[in-house]
Automatic annotation (TrEMBL):
Stated name of the protein: EAL domain-containing protein
Domain GGDEF residues, every copy: 392-525
PROSITE patterns the UniProt entry points to: EAL, GGDEF, PAC, PAS
Organism, as annotated: Massilia agri
Record NCBIfam families: GGDEF, sensory_box
Residue ranges occupied by any PAC domain in the UniProt entry: 306-360
Domain EAL intervals: 533-786
Domain PAS: start-end pairs: 1-47, 112-182, 237-305
Length: 789
């Protein structure tokens, strides 16, 4: 054993009762117990006087007489520092033994010494020592792992820079209190490492004097488990708020779920107490052989980690069967993973009460919670105004997700919504509080990055944004790849107004998308592409002004009798240079420029005029369907405009049909229900297009007033592709179960005709029967058919 200086200090760990937990070689050298012998022994065995452990623990240590290695005894100072676990509870002590010149009985006392830097790595948390300048002077490996910083980087770092901006004032005040008042402090923070990993921490410290100077010694404890318990408590509180309905909370176990909690209302409805329910699969109440389809919907929703609402029959404990309106909602953790489901059940045997609340906030997107278009323009206008005043730069970043339609088509619209929510959270985490993240429309986001000191700074921010978009999104057991194209425009270089900035960012984004994605900054060369699009927009304006648009009408045939049952109006553009153009070549631009509403109004006017002509010629009972886009039917005054046209052209209820893709209505159920009700009130029929293209919500469709559904074109094509037509047959059956007429469109060959007829499809439409016809040709066709009859 080596001799130590009188001021040397040995540190080790004790539990609450004063029993040694950890003992290092330096302590072994001082007292003679090896690291293997010391754990489990009481510290009091080293005391030579009547020192009481409870008294020492209460006082935080004191002067004691101790037995050292080699049988030597002498005086020493024992210092005790309380330790805390991840939940903030006191757990054990750090003990320090110091022999000073005044307390050493003689110079022959031999004690071992060890560097404090070797002891701190034994501590369970992130240890640190901070000087008055706010710099780290000592730390352990746990701190390096937490921060993902090298020792050189930690030595150069400022402690305050490790806190988020909003937490820094409290951190600064805590450090001041330690050094100026000798206070013991603690606070919670969310530490974000350089790789983006967020760790909730409880950090604290106290003043320690070393060699005439003072330092803040402290520990940072990971409190993720405590946060999880808090989230679980919030779950319970949410459940108790709906005490009038039965509430069941289940834990996801693979494709199944296990009950963890039920409330009193559940016990009253089902007849099973909590002890009889917890730990079981909710299907133990299933009524055998009843409502198999609805139960399969629940199983699929659990597997895909999505919400579902069904009405089916269950069996009470006493054997009675009751109707159960069950709404299941997934609960996600901080990583977006579904860990639990909340089921709210209502006994609707006597009455079925369903309520739907659609809350719209004026300035925020209801799906993601981000700023909406209105707030975006306000923020961007304000940012440009301040940048002009202070001679700074503003960056507008337009982000468009890559292959988002494929995500919806492949994984379903709920997966698409989940992706949008995750992307929104990632974008918010990648920018500063002073910046704005907005959802422009669909899968398009716009960011306003204010106070940009340099182009290099902007490049770093945009690169951080790009990296945040590269990680896949977990949904329903799938890893959904996410990518994006980013366009950037800077004030004042690329535009002097908000509109010019967004237009420049939009051009840059389109350039990025056309080159395989990534990030592109606006350049003058992009203006030519924008000018081409502007020319198309002017061409559309000219088409409206010079009657270059025209309608064709494709008949719908009765599958059994072969009679004409109605028409679909199809838009065409007779372009002076390019000839007749299909809608796909110009309606996208019309949507983006806002001309779609004016075009839609023109189409509705022409369709109503055509209907009026048919009726004047004696052809009644032949409705005409018109396709309308979300931009059209979500406009204020859309329904009133339909009613006015019906009156002006003398059309009876049901003569005009509005055709909307099924997926559009399902994406916004509240708007879909309102639109359906208002159309019925003014006598306009609703036709669902592309039925079965995505995920159908039959409960939702039952709430709508729908005349007919039109099979998706893919379902009709598959009839000849696989020879079985299983999708088309299923969709026909579903349509008939909903008591709706089913139309098969895009029918191009005899095999498709025979299959659809044989499986009960009500009406058929497509090139096999007739190409789209001009109004005069329609009159001629009807005359020939009626005369032939």
């Amino acid at each position: 054993m080596s001799f130590i200086e009188p001021s040397a200090q040995v540190t080790f760990l004790l539990d609450d009762e004063g029993t040694i937990v950890s003992w290092n070689p330096a302590a072994s050298a001082m007292f003679g117990w090896t690291p293997a012998q010391a754990p489990g022994r009481r510290l009091a065995e080293l005391f030579l006087d009547a020192a009481s452990w409870p008294a020492l623990a209460s006082a935080g240590g004191g002067k004691v007489r101790m037995r050292f290695a080699g049988g030597i005894d002498g005086k020493a100072r024992l210092a005790l520092l309380r330790q805390y676990d991840a939940d903030g509870a006191a757990r054990g002590w750090t003990a320090s033994v110091m022999v000073s010149p005044h307390e050493s009985p003689d110079e022959s006392v031999r004690v071992a010494s060890t560097p404090l830097s070797e002891v701190v790595d034994l501590l369970p948390g992130a240890f640190y020592a901070i000087n008055r300048a706010g710099r780290l002077v000592l730390w352990n490996h746990n701190l390096e792992r937490l921060t993902e910083m090298t020792p050189d980087e930690l030595a150069a770092a400022r402690v305050l820079d490790m806190f988020e901006a909003r937490e820094r004032p409290l951190a600064l005040e805590s450090i001041r209190r330690v050094f100026e008042e000798g206070a013991e402090v603690s606070m919670e923070m969310n530490y974000l490492s350089r790789s983006g990993r967020e760790t909730p921490m409880l950090v604290g410290g106290a003043l320690v004097r070393c060699n005439g100077d003072s330092y803040l010694f402290g520990l940072g404890i990971n409190i993720a488990k405590r946060r999880a318990k808090e989230r679980q408590l919030m779950l319970s509180e949410r459940a108790m708020h709906a005490a009038s309905n039965g509430i069941v909370i289940t834990r996801c176990v693979g494709n199944d779920s296990i009950i963890e909690y039920v409330n009193a209302a559940f016990e009253r409805i089902a007849g099973y107490c909590a002890e009889e329910s917890i730990g079981r699969d909710p299907r133990f109440m299933a009524a055998p052989d009843l409502d198999v389809h609805e139960r399969s919907q629940v199983r699929l929703a659990i597997k895909e980690r999505r919400a579902v609402n069904v009405v089916f029959r269950n069996r009470r404990k006493n054997g009675d069967i009751f109707w159960n309106d069950l709404r299941i909602t997934p609960v996600r953790d901080e990583h977006g993973e579904v860990t639990h489901f909340i089921g709210i059940l209502q006994d609707v045997t006597a009455t079925k009460e369903r309520t739907a609340h659609l809350e719209h906030e004026v300035n925020h997107d209801p799906l993601t919670g981000l700023a909406n278009r209105t707030l975006l323009w306000d923020r961007l206008d304000h940012a440009v105004h301040l940048a002009h005043r202070h001679h700074t730069m503003v960056a507008a970043v337009l982000i468009d997700l890559d292959n988002f339609k494929t995500i919806n088509d492949t994984f379903g619209h709920e997966a698409g919504d989940a992706v949008l929510k995750v992307v929104a959270r990632r974008l918010q985490a990648a920018v500063r509080e002073s910046d704005t993240v907005a959802r422009m429309s669909g899968d398009e986001f716009v960011l306003v990055l204010v106070d940009q000191p340099s182009l290099r700074f902007t490049l770093r921010m945009v690169e951080r944004l790009r990296r945040s978009m590269t990680m896949p999104v977990a949904f329903g057991g799938n890893e959904i790849p996410v990518g994006a194209s980013l366009g950037v425009a800077l004030y004042p270089h690329d535009g002097s107004s908000p509109a010019e900035l967004v237009r420049g960012a939009d051009m840059a984004m389109y350039h990025a998308k056309g080159n395989g994605g990534g990030v592109h900054f606006f350049s003058a060369e992009m203006r030519s592409a924008d000018e081409k699009r502007a020319a198309l927009a002017r061409g559309i304006r000219s088409a409206l002004d010079h009657d270059e648009l025209f309608l064709l009408f494709q008949p719908r045939m009765d599958a059994r009798s072969g009679k004409v049952r109605g028409f679909e109006a199809l838009l065409r553009w007779r372009h002076p240079e390019h000839g007749v153009m299909l809608p796909a070549s110009f309606l996208t631009e019309a949507e983006e420029t806002g001309q779609m509403v004016e075009i839609g109004n023109w189409v509705l006017d022409q369709a109503c005029a055509f209907l009026q002509q048919l009726r004047q010629l004696g052809y009644t009972g032949l409705p005409v369907s018109v396709n309308v886009s979300h931009r059209e039917y979500s406009q204020h005054g859309f329904i009133a405009g339909l009613a006015e046209r019906m009156t002006r052209h003398g059309l009876p209820p049901g003569a005009l049909e509005i055709e909307i893709p099924e997926a559009d209505l399902i994406r916004n159920p509240g708007l879909g229900r309102d639109l359906s009700s208002q159309l019925r009130e003014v006598g306009v029929a609703l036709s669902l297009d592309e039925f079965g293209k995505g995920i159908s919500d039959l409960n939702f469709l039952q709430q709508l007033s729908v005349r007919q559904v039109k099979l998706s074109k893919a379902a009709v094509r598959d009839i000849t592709r696989d020879g079985r037509g299983s999708l088309a047959k299923t969709l026909i059956d579903i349509g008939h179960n909903l008591e709706l007429a089913v139309v098969g469109e895009a029918v191009e060959n005899e095999a498709q005709v025979e299959f659809l007829k044989s499986h009960g499809c009500d009406q058929l439409q497509g090139q096999w029967f007739s190409e789209p016809l001009a109004a005069d040709a329609v009159h001629q066709m009807l005359d020939q058919r009626y005369h032939a009859q």
